[in-house]
Amino acid sequence: MTHTFYDEMYLANGECRSHYREFTRWLADTPSDLLAQRRREADLLFHRAGITFTLYGDDQGTERLIPFDIIPRSIPASEWRIVERGCIQRVQALNLFLTDIYHDQRILKAGIIPPEQVLANEGYQLAMQGLDLHRNIYSHISGVDLVRDGDGSYYVLEDNLRTPSGVSYMLEDRKMMMRLFPELFAAQRVAPINHYPDMLLDTLKSSSPMENPTVVVLTPGRFNSAYFEHAFLAREMGVELVQGADLFVRDDKVYMRTTAGAKPVDVIYRRLDDAFLDPLAFNPDSMLGVPGLLASYRSGNVVLANAVGTGVADDKSIYPYVDEMIRFYLAEEPILKNVPTWQCRKPKDLSHVLANLPDLVVKETQGSGGYGMLVGPASTKAQIEEFRARLIARPEAYIAQPTLSLSTCPTFVENGIAPRHIDLRPFVLSGRETRLVPGGLTRVALREGSLVVNSSQGGGTKDTWIVGD
Amino acid sequence: MRLSISHDTTYQYDEQVRSSIQYLRITPQQSERQQVINWELNLPRPVRAQRDPYGNILHVLTVDVPHDNIVIGAHGQVDIDENCEFEHESQSALPFLRVTRLTEPSQALREFASIQCKTRRDRTAMIDLMQALNAHIRYEKGVTSTETSAADAFAAGRGVCQDHTHAFLACARSLGVPSRYVSGYLYTDDSDHLASHAWAEAWLDDAWYSFDITNNLTLPERHLKLAVGLDYLDACPVRGMRRGGGGEQMHAHVDVSSMFMVQAQ
Amino acid sequence: MLSTTASNLYWMSRYLERAENLARMLEVSYSLSLMPQDDHGNGLDELAMPLIITGTLDEYLEQHGEMHAERMLNFFGLDANNPASIYCCLQAARTNAHAVRGRITADMWENINASWLEVRDIAQQGIARYGISHFCEWVKERSHLFRGATFGTIMRGEAYRFIRLGTFIERADNTLRLLDARYELLGEDIDEIEGRSARSYYQWTALLRALSSFEAFAEIYRGSPGARKVSELLLLRTEVPRSLRSCTEELYSMLTSLPGDNGRPAQRLAAELEARLRYTTIDEVLDEGLHTWLNDLILLIRELGQAIHSSYLEVA
Fold it and tell me: What is the count of residue pairs from A and B with beta carbons less than 8 Å apart?
């Protein structure tokens, strides 16, 4: 991996890449004060519509806007087809892996993954052992995080198989761009993504063996950082948005409390972690879940999407084995690359990591959201030493990867337009078939030089266009 | 030994309960060590038996008409093979290496475990560990609760069977020995004759061996097993929630008799 | 519909209606306080009226010690620590709307959210700088806008019905209380009840204006307002949208069109109330004693509110 950055818009010689030509021409022709005005308009509209997220660790539960950048991230269709196939392949393999480890455990018996890596993992749920799921799908909705290295090749950074979020921004960003710059969409063909909620509902319905199941979205509530998205998706799909207290279990069946009495619920798109689902089976302090839900689930009376126990497959300690899973279950070669990963629980890997800390990214195997990580090149000596101590104390809790030189895309910043690092999260839906809408959420690290795109860490978003080559 | 058990628990509430739900793990399973002659539950309404994630027999009781008490009765006879030292199991024991909030080892527990066992991971090591914990955590009622973690009970040096068991699990798992929580009944010689009890099992030589830390016992000759799990929360006999009801009084009535089995020659 | 959703919709509209009513209450008192006062002269008693009606005067005195015009106005209008203030009502309305933003139209949400953002700015300035009449106008206007957005965009389904229920329960209660408060103030003097003094003229006129019923009164009665006519108009006439009778008719019609039969207790109460008003004349009301009658009705409306709660809104 090199340390030059791949620029999404321009070639090394400064020439514009062909799939961006139309856009740059438009950009050059549009007066800057008009752009500035449109950007203000976008802010106002987002604010008005209350498209916000709540920051963790903020006592006030302050709602913030995720900064939206009007310069889209474009991907040529031919390139997208590869990304699409790669994501489908990956998610299929991961669902097969989950089916396997909760049933025959062939991949463990074949010696491809050490059994304790899977079985003693916190994400592995005994509750799923031997339980048969309709269509053998565990991760109905998966978010695959992709970045591009210096030569432009795509790497999978992580697979989000629990409750991946961000799809509402993907949809709202598109709506905003179409509202602000309709002329752009008239001029070039951007693949549509607006049917995502339909596809999601179809996926959720197909997760139940019932003819026409009642689907609900289960949210932890208004103070959750992604509440906007939960409400958004429920509304777009035309299903109820419920909290734990709206549901109850009677004789192993789940019902919701309605103005006309108890109504049976068949599929729960839950945006709640496993640990909070059922206070009688998991975390007893959870006020967010539904007492009795797990027993009902295990009795086959209700579908949870995603299933319980998917966390083991997107754990960073399992991530290094995804290539092997693809070969094992699908007998195919991986289409998308995995980032080389050192597993600190292995003494040899650990010593390599300790010797090269300033050049590496170190992550917690269980962490997400960019909180418990070290970006070597961007850290002070003191920060590196602090992480060294943590690594030595609990090596099994960490993995390390080379620092990727994330691709950049021109972005509006304070003094004009400048390149900023981006990633891409397409959302893969698994039901009757495995599919995704053309595009995804592009996150952009707004701070100069920053590689962390999480919204909680000062990241913004861009509309993502799949355009003709 | 044949145990004949009659166990009625009454929950009395100060106010009307609008609805309640309980996970009940109060039905023993057939195994190498215990043979269930007969067993029945008396519940306010009929409930289907199912398996919980750990293979225990689970009843989920939901009552959604207003009520001010619930009576849960369990009655039956079980033969215990007093000489059976271990039990086999087809499922992997590796999930029982996991740490939970109640069994998270503190630095003190890790050190304690490693001092007792050094590099040994066999049954004698676990016996040493059991005896050392029995000496370290003095049996005393009322100082800990069901929410007390192994680390806290260990630091306080006092606790009950549940704390003993959690501390043992924390240590054993920190050494890489899969181990699990067991809840059940213990037949005693005192006036009550029967107590709800907790002990541990550790996975050694491809079988589950029992360790009753509270009584320093490795042969569970008077132990009737009801459920297993990662910790108390998974295995406890009754775990429930209710809406309304105010305060609660619990009253248990236990009746037990034992007879030594007459071996057919 | 989910019980919690119905509850959020119901309370969203109740709080918004309450904010509007509080603004109307404030407007009357403020305009009357500017009138030449007979006995006291500084208009403070009149400014205290809204606090008395909402039962928050004691709390105000506890916090601020004495009656002070601007402090009372701020306390009533914009105090974030006074849960009965207009500010807090708008906040509560917005919080409830936020919880059900999937069930209301984007127009409704954006409207109520914008009101909330704006009232925060107004609170920063203080009510005096913004202008009291201006503020009252603004609150009413926001409420009108929201009602318009609701009327013009939402599907005529269950959501709409619970929104209407909230509005009319709150409005019925408000009309009863406002009338009772003005009547109390004038009650002792028969001349004033009959509307023969200048003071009573202004009082009754202010009340009619507060309930946007001045034009209706002029058209129907064509005379100077007095207790009998004003009460008849505000209690028993169906033509005036803020009259008690209009409220109970609407409540009855909304409740009977709700599906399911778990709402029977509320439906029965609404039907009884509706029948009672339909077959009552103002003479019967006055014979019973207006104050007694009003208080009886306040309790009945509250009972109906509770029945709506236990039938539909409570998470059982």
Answer: 69
